[in-house]
Specification:
The complex is a heterodimer of chains A (134) and B (373). Chain A has 134 residues and is mostly beta strands. Chain A has one domain (15-124): Beta Barrel (OB fold (Dihydrolipoamide Acetyltransferase, E2P)). In chain A, 0% of the residues lie in helices and 41% in strands. Chain A has no helices and 9 strands. Chain A has strands at 15-18, 23-30, 36-37, 51-56, 59-68, 79-86, 91-95, 107-113, 119-123. In chain A, the strands form 2 sheets. A 5-stranded antiparallel β-sheet of chain A has the order 7-6-5-8-9, with no helix packed on it. In chain A, strands 1, 2, 3 and 4 form a 4-stranded antiparallel β-sheet that branches. Chain A starts with 14 loop residues before the first strand and ends in an 11-residue tail after the last strand. The mean pLDDT of chain A is 91. In chain B, helix 3 packs across helix 12 and helix 6 (149-163) crosses helix 9. Chain B is an alpha/beta fold and 373 residues long. The longest helix of chain B is centred in the last third of the chain and has 17 residues, at 319-335. Chain B has 2 domains: 4-111 and 200-216, Peroxisomal Thiolase, Chain A, domain 1, CATH 3.40.47.10; 130-193 and 220-372, Thiolase/Chalcone synthase (Peroxisomal Thiolase, Chain A, domain 1, 3-Layer(aba) Sandwich), CATH 3.40.47. Chain B has helices at 21-36, 55-60, 79-92, 122-125, 130-145, 149-163, 177-182, 240-254, 271-280, 289-294, 311-315, 319-335; strands at residues 4-10, 43-47, 70-73, 98-106, 185-187, 190-191, 200-208, 217-225, 263-265, 348-355, 365-372. The chains are: A mainly beta (134), B alpha/beta (373). The A-B interface holds A 1, 8-14, 36, 38-39, 45-46, 63-75, 79, 81, 83, 85-86, 89-91, 93, 95, 101, 104-105, 116-119, 133 and B 52-54, 113-114, 116-117, 119-123, 125-129, 131-132, 135-140, 142-143, 184-189, 229, 231-234, 237, 359-360.
């Protein structure tokens, strides 16, 4: 019952493209209840209504953050990550560069897609000392 | 009508490469059968998270349990708690008179270090390993309530002190708050001594109808849910609302509240998990879990000890076996058989297990069990 070698699974992460200067985050939004979804769906996860492809804002508010300092396959520690609630939804997981997590409650903007395929965000606007989580 | 725990058993907990599931299961099942004073069961509700297909049957034949229905559950960290909950309902419904519940996990066969995030999960693929999940809980908790490092450290100090009294625990060495906070950072703000270890172990319980024996422990309630959508509309840390909903279900069924419970075994996979669990269970107000542990209320000798076994932080975390280990601890205390870590006069114990790992929902599954009373 050992599995044979299989191709890697479909990438379940938020879909985004970058033209080198701007990032476009794509997903689906319900035409009835307007629920935003980053997972590939054929019906709304909330109300099972019809969905249509859409783009989402690249700016939002940091909801929580941390820096992982242990070995994780495909990622070189340390790496900081954050949940960012994009304006109008949804909430996405982003990498934020370096090892200092962004402070919850501050603004961030998705600026790139990393070589590993992850969203990369930066503080939106000048960084003050208070914006970096202690 | 109630279902009862007739007997419990566990293997030793620890990194035991090469021992294998069947050998671990023999230790747990034979102890549980002896404890229950039975030699057969009507069915087996087994659980494993990472085990290969047939793990339960492979282990059960080694203890002579064949020819009965065997079901295998998977519900992340709440796997064997889920099996326990379902076995109880199988007994209550009259389907079976006596069910063996088995949790079995050989994590060193799958991981050299921390659990590898699931590639098919959106956040797992992005590198959010489980320490990161709980670190995000800590970050959000800090944003909502302010999180004091000394409160996190107090959980680790308390549980590792409790674990020093548990000869089955993987890590039974006392530590100081300074050592906890100075240990290597894993995922800010969680340091190494605030994280449970992977473990190989098996756990077992025999659940059955009322047979009129005083030593059997009544299951006063059990509740299980998986989490709702946890998204941009959510204000609370991951798992908090799910734990609260399941606890409310359990308190309603048991007809008691957290103030009536003598001891708790909760899911302290990481220190912050115990703080949020105690609040979700109603032991403290939101934000009050820190003062609860710092006050000594939850230490052995305090008003309501939490994790007298040492918790996952001391015992280790063999995912599919952990829930029944918590149940076993509760049973031992209610019977007065917990030895050096006995909670004096314990009559009611509550168990909470939280399983996670799926992005987008508030938890794969949470189980709360109330024993005794």
């Amino acid at each position: 019952m050992s599995p044979t070698v299989q191709p890697p699974p479909a990438d379940p992460r938020t879909r985004a493209t970058s033209d080198g200067t701007a990032v476009t985050i794509t997903g689906w939004r319900c035409t009835a209840c307007h629920y935003p979804m980053t997972q590939q769906v054929t019906a709304c996860m909330e109300c099972r209504g019809e969905v249509e492809e859409t783009t989402f804002a690249t700016e939002g508010e940091v909801w929580a953050s941390t820096c992982l300092r242990v070995r994780v396959p495909g990622h070189q520690p340390p790496f900081a990550v954050a949940y960012v609630v994009l304006d109008g939804g949804p909430r996405v997981l982003v990498h934020t560069g370096g090892d200092q997590p962004l402070a919850p409650g501050t603004r961030a903007r998705v600026v790139a897609v990393s070589e590993t395929g992850d969203l990369v965000a930066e503080p939106d606007g000048p960084v003050s000392a208070q914006e970096v989580a202690s | 009508m109630s279902a009862y725990v007739y007997g419990v058993g566990t293997s030793h907990f620890g990194r035991q490469p090469g021992v294998g599931g069947p050998a671990l299961a023999q230790q747990a099942v034979l102890e549980a059968l002896r404890d229950a004073e039975v030699d057969s069961v009507d069915a087996v509700y087994a659980g494993t998270v990472f085990g290969a297909p047939g793990t339960a049957q492979r282990a059960l034949q080694s203890v002579g349990i064949t020819g009965v229905p065997v079901l295998t559950f998977e519900n992340a960290c709440a796997t064997s708690s889920t099996g326990f909950h379902e076995a109880r309902h199988a007994v209550l419904s009259g389907r079976y008179e006596r069910v063996l519940v088995l949790g079995i996990e050989t994590m060193t066969a799958h991981f050299n270090g921390p659990i590898t995030p699931e590639e098919t999960d959106a956040e797992g693929r992005a590198g959010l390993a489980l320490p990161g999940v709980y670190a995000m809980v800590a970050s959000r908790y800090d944003h909502l309530h302010g999180l004091r490092p000394e409160a996190l450290a107090a959980v680790a100090v308390k549980n590792r002190r409790h674990g020093s009294l548990n000869d089955r625990a993987q890590h039974g060495v006392e530590v100081t708050a300074e050592e906890v906070l100075a240990s290597r950072m894993v995922a800010d703000p969680l340091t190494l001594l605030q994280c449970c270890d992977i473990s190989d172990a098996a756990t077992a319980a025999v659940v059955g109808v009322d047979r009129g024996r005083t030593r059997d422990v009544r299951i006063a309630a059990s509740a299980l849910r998986s989490g709702g959508l946890w998204d941009h509309r959510s204000d609370q840390p991951w798992g908090y609302e799910l734990m609260g909903q399941v606890a409310a279900d359990a308190w309603a069924e048991a007809g008691i509240g957290p103030e009536d419970v003598d001891l708790f075994e909760v899911h302290d996979a990481f220190t912050i998990g115990e703080i949020t669990a105690t609040e979700a269970l109603g032991l403290a107000e939101p934000g009050g879990g820190q003062d609860l542990v710092l006050s000594g209320h939850t230490t052995l000798g305090g008003r309501q000890p939490v994790n007298p076994s040492g918790g996952l932080l001391s015992r280790g975390h063999p995912l599919g076996a952990t829930g029944l280990a918590q149940v076993a601890e509760g049973v031992w205390h209610v019977r007065g058989e917990a030895g050096a870590r006995q909670v004096e006069g314990a009559r009611v114990a509550a168990v909470e297990t939280m399983g996670g790992g799926t992005a987008g929902i508030d938890g794969n599954g949470c189980v709360v069990v109330v024993l005794g009373g």
